[in-house]
Fold these 2 entries.
Entry 1:
Amino acid sequence: MARTLTRALVAVLLAFAAACSGGGDGAQGTSKGTIRFLVFGDPGELAAYRQVVAAFQGSQSDVKVQLVEASDRADLIARLSTSIAGGSPPDVFLMNYRYYGQFAAKSAIEPVDTLLAASKAFRERGFYPQALDAFRWRGHLQCLPQNISSLAVYYNRDLFAKYGVAPPRAGWTWNDMITTAVQLTRDRAGRVVRAKESEAAAAAAVYGLGVEPSLIRVAPFVWSNGGQLVDNDRKPTRLALNSPEAKEALRSFLDLRLAYGVIPTDQEVEAEDDEARFTNGRLAMVLSSRRATPTFRKAAKFDWDVAPLPVFDQQVGILHSDAYCITRASSNKAAAWRFLEYALGERGQHVVARTGRTVPSMIKVSRSSAFLDSAQKPRSAQVFLDAIPTVRRTPSISTWPEIEDVTGGILELGLYRGESVDQVVAKLDAATRPLFARGQSP
C-alpha cells in the first residue's frame, strides 16, 4: 500500500514539475516524447552510449533519445552551463562525481531519491554504495551512477615477456613498480636506459610507465602512505599535502621523470599521449581507469592486462564514477527517468559493460559475464572489483574542477622541471586556498 502511494505521488510530482517548467514537445510528464542526452568521450566511449541508446529505442517506441556529443569534458560543461542559464538544458547528462558539485550547488539537478524509491527497475541496495554516496548533496541523491572504477595499472604482457620481467601482482609496492619500470625502459637496441641517458633526445624507444601529473593520480598514493589529500573531507578548506606522509608520496611521484627516467618527457607526451603510446607498443605500463579499455581492445595489437595499484603502506584506490543526471529544468523528466531506468537497469548495464567501458555500478551485473568475460581483455577484470572496498573519493566541493585545473600545471612543472617537493606543496596551497574558500560543500 505504501509503495503504491509513493509511486502515485511520484507521478503527480513529475506531472506538476513538467507543467511548471513550460516548453517541451507536448509530452510533459507523460513518459513520452523526445529527450536530449548530453555526453562526451573518445570514440570507444561514444560508441558505448550509442549502443545503449539504440538498445533503449529498440525496447519501446514512444520515447526518442537524441544523443548530443560534446567534444570533451570542457565542452560538455560549457554547453551544460550555457543551456541551463538559457533555460533550454538537455534532459539528461552524464558527469563524473568530481564535476557535478558545481551544478548541484546551483540546484540545477533534479534529485532522484523519490524516483529511485518507487522504481520497479532496481533498488538502491542493488548499487555499490561507494558510487551512490559520491552523488549525495545536502541529503539528496542527485544522480544515479552508471559505473564504479578505480585506477589500475594496464600493462603490455608481450613487452614483459620479451624482456623477462615478472608481471605485476597483488600487493606489489611502489618500489616494485619503480624497479619494474626501470627494467622496461629500453632503447632501440633493447638495452635498459638509465635516468641520465633518457634525457638525451629519443634515448628511450620504450618507456616503463605512463602517468599524468594530476591530483587524482597523486591522491591514492598519498592515502596509501597514510597522508590526507585535504584537511577535512566533508568541509575542506585547503590541501593537506604538507604532512611527512603526503610529502614522501608526492616526492616519490615527482621523481619518476628526473630521478628514474621511466616516464616520457613532457615534449614526448605532447606529441603522443600515454594511452596512444601504450596502444602503439611504446609504453610498458600506464595508469588509467576502466574508461581506457574500449580503446585498448580496439587498437592494441599485443597481449595486455590489468594489475592493482602498487602500495606504500596500505592498499587504497581512488573512485572513478560517472552518473546519469536529470536537469531540474528538463521539460520531460518522466521520459528522462524512463531512459535512466533502462540504461541503469540490468539490460542497459549489460549493454555498456560488454563494450568494456564500465565497471557496472549495479552489483549483480558487475559479477556477471557481461563484465567478467574471460574471452575479452583484460582477463584480470576482477582487479577492478577487488579494488572497490578500498576506494576513496575526492571531496565534494563546487570548485573542485578549478582546483584540479590549477594544480595540474603545478604538478607538471614539479614532475618535468625538478622543483622540490616543498616548492610544489607551497605553490599548490597558495593556488588552491582561494578556490576552497569560495567553494560550496554538501
Note: The two ends are 33 Å apart (CA to CA).
Entry 2:
Amino acid sequence: MADGQQVAERMPGARQAGPASIPDLALAPVLAVAALLALLLVAFSGRYGYHRDELYFLACGRHLAWGYPDQPALVPLIARLMSLAAPGSLVVLRLPSALAGAALVILTALLTRELGGERTAQVLAAAAIALSSVVDGSGHLLSTTTFDLPLWALLCWLVARILRTGQQRLWLVAGLVAGLALNNDDLVAFLIFAIVAGLAVAGPRAHLASPWFYAGGLIAALAWAPYLAWQAAHGWPELAVSSSIAAGASGTSAPRWLILPEQLGLASPYLAPVWIAGLVRLLRDPALRWCAAFGVGYLVLAVVFIVTGGKPYYLAGMFPVLFAAGAQPTINWMRRGRPRLRRVLVICAVALSLTAIPITLPVLPVGLVRSTPIVKLNYDAGETIGWPAFVREIAAVYRSLPRAQRAHAVVLASNYGEAGAVDRFGPGFGLPPAYSGHMAFWYWGPPPASAGTVVAVGFSAAQLTGVCRQPRLAGRLNNRLGVSDQEQGAPVWVCQRAARPWSIWPRLRDFG
C-alpha cells in the first residue's frame, strides 16, 4: 500500500484529492504480459522488411540535427545508435520498439492501480493494451508512435499520482518526461494542453497555482527549445507538414468524421466496452472526481484532432488511461448477476482480440499477402514489402546506361521512402546515393552541378519539366509479389538534365 497521505503531509501546500492508499501491484502477471508482448514483437521483427519511415529515420540518423521538417530528433538518434550497434539488422533496429511496448503494458497496469484497480483489473488492462492493434502495429516498427504511447502513459501516470497524493514536486519529473516526449513528437503538446484544460474545467484547480507545476512546465519548454529553434530557423516547416496531413496527403490520414469510429479498430473492438466504460467513469464517477481532468482531456483532444484534421491514431495515446479506468468496472460487472457467463464473455473478448495479430504483425508468409485484405486493413504492412526489389529495378535502369553516362548519373527520388531505400540497398547494386526534395532530404541539397543523366523515380513526366529534357520511361517498380503498395508500378525515367536544373530545387521541395 502507498503512503501518499504521509508524503502529502510532509510537503507544505500539497493537497491530496484521491485515496490515501491503493491496491498492491500485480507485478508477476503484469510482467508476464509485458514479456509476452516483447517476445512476440521481437519474434516477428525481422520479417518482411523495412518500413518507408524506418528507411527515412536511418537517413536522418546519418544527418543528425536538432530537428527535421516533420519531427524532432529522438527517433533518428535511436535509428543511428541501433544501426551503429548492428548495421543492417532489422531485429536490432526494432528492439527499442519491443521494449517500449513492454513498458507501455507495465505503465497501463500502474495507471490502473493508481485509479484504484485491484490486481485482476491491472492484469485485464495490461492485456487489453497489449492486444490493441495500434500497440502491436507500432511496436513492430521503429516510429514516433512507438515511443509516443509509453511516454504519454508515463506522463499520465505521473499526473495521476500528483492528483491523488498531492506530491507537487513530481511536477518536475513530469516536466522532464514531457521534455523527452516533445523531442520525440509534437503530439504530446496537445496532451499537455488537454490536461491543463481538464484541470481548469474539472479541477482540482489548485495545481494550476502551484509553483512546482510551472517549474515542470519550464523544464519541458527548455528541453523542447532546441527543436523549436531549429523549426524557427527553417521557417516552421512542420506547419506545412501538418497542413498536408489535414488535407489527407498521408497514407494513414482519414476523413475527420472517421476519427472517432476508427478508435474501435485501433484498440481491440472486442474490448472497446472496457475503455468506453473507463471514459464514462472518468466523467461521472464521484470516486474519481479527483482525476476527472483525464476524461475532460480526452474530449478536448477529440475535438482538437477532429477540427485540425489529425490522424485517428493521435487519440490512441489516451487508451492506457481509459483502459485503466474501465478495467475495475469490468471486473465488478463480471462478478455480478451470472458471474460464470460474464467471466466467459470477458475471456472470449480477450481471446478474440488475438485474431487481429495476423493483420498487425507479419505473421503470414509474404507471398500470401496479395491474396488477403491485410494491406487494405493495415496500410503500414504494405510499406514494409518490396524495397530491395524496387531498388533492384532502379539499379537495372542505371546499369542500362552507357558507362560514360553512369559516371555522371544521379538518382532523383520523389519521396523519402524511395530515397531511403536507395541509400540503404543501393550500394549493393552499385547505385550512387539518392537525392530527393521530400521532407529532410530537401535540406540535404540537390545533386551536384556536374550531374548529367538523371534516373528519376516516382515522378510524372510533367513534374520533371525544368529538371531534365525528354524523359524516357525506362521501367516501373515491381515488388514481384503482387502486393499493391504505395510504390508498386511507380515509373522510372531516364533523361538528360536541363540547363541549370537545380536552380529549381526550391520548387521540388515537398513537405506533403
Note: The radius of gyration is 25 Å.
